Amino acid sequence: MIKDFAVVGSGIGGSSIAALLSSKGFDVILFEKEPYLGGCSSSFSRAGYNYNTGATTLAGYEDGHVVREIFDAIGVVPNLLESDPSIVIIHNENVTPRYRDFEKFFEILQLNYPHKKNRVFWELIYDINREFYRFSGHYYANSNIFSKVESLFSFLPIFLRFKKYLVANAHSFIKNFFADADDEYIAFLESQIFIVAQAPLREINFFTAALSLAYTFNKNYYVLGGFSTLFDDITQNVKELHRKSEIISISRHKNHFELYTKNGRYKAKKVILNSTVYDSGKLFNDIEIKNYYKRYKKLDNYQSSFMFYMTIKSEKNFHHHYQIIQEDTLPYTLSKALFVSFSDKNDTLIAPKGHYSITASIHTDSRLWENKSFYKARKKELEDILREIILKKLDIKEDEIVQSFGATSKTFYRYIRRSQLGGNAMTFKNFLPFLPGNDTSIKNLYNVGDTVFPAQGWPGVMLGVKNLKRLLDA
């Protein structure tokens, strides 16, 4: 029997488009290599304790935002707690909660980083974010030059409104705006931008930087029970879901595709890949398809994450998320900033009563972990450094640790077949019209996820899901 759609990979994009198409009555089959759904955004168990794999916060689930729109279309109501502050930033002696309420946040900001132009700057950030989410109707097509040009015209209202910020380099804009700002304040801004935009200031425009700084003015949520429970809810109406089923190869035929696993062969009229766009070609022997994906190999920036997981037993109260900014870039990483997430104190689905599950991450280059001679020593050294920072900055005692361990880009490749993490940022080199699309020049072959339109994170990937749905309806 030939399926309408085969979706390969159960990350944010794969699970969501599979559920959305299923809700429209299509016959969909979803494949996932691991027992847990979600890819980089899944959760897992180790030695009896649970952890979120990578993503630890859900943004965009509010009226007028795309995550809410897609969830409503699927018919799922997630089990969430609002996080406010969305994140607490610890930088030297300064502790800055990023409250959703502008004035509440600004009062603390001005105490920690006083500057006469702060209000003008942060009101600009707030207004850009608020106005951007009022735009709708824009979409991106990439199957041929004519559809691409036509789709680019849909962005004209956004371009006209934000042109000044779209063409301005973020680093130059901020340095010129805060002409006398010290390095500490710039580090405070850049660390927040990097964790959202997944790129340094010099590589992005100010519009992207503004949206990155403003995400805490939107509602952000903690997912009860860990992210795998959310993906179980999203995909509950997908009739055929194959866990622990890795797609080994895909062949193209006249009117369908055939997908091969170790246990069988499946047919589908259309295929949607939730895999990194520059690695997708390895699934095919078809030269035309391999060459299509080969053109995007240059997008692989080797940026990844080093993860550090802990379970602690503590009676203290912690916020859901912290960003700890250090003076210097940490060894074997690309960043000065460590992102640390705690399970909710009352969430006994992910951690036993009186315990916290902790997921910490920092940017790294996957090539730093390829040499077997240095791998174990580097991993141990960075684990020790991150543990020490977390214990010191968050006042945790060594004897409160129940379990701790790290994961590198090699770990992620072993489990989810990708070592590049965080998606592809919208940089000056990777911006419309150069961004890979959800559609391809190959008939009935599509992509979704954080390496194609429009970007990374829940809102970015869900915009891609919405865009793909539009293309499939066209």
UniProtKB/TrEMBL annotation:
Domain of life: Bacteria
One Pfam short name: NAD_binding_8
InterPro entries: CrtISO-like, FAD/NAD-bd_sf
One GO BP: carotenoid metabolic process
PANTHER family per the UniProt record, alphabetical: PROLYCOPENE ISOMERASE, CHLOROPLASTIC, PTHR46313
UniProt protein name: FAD-binding protein
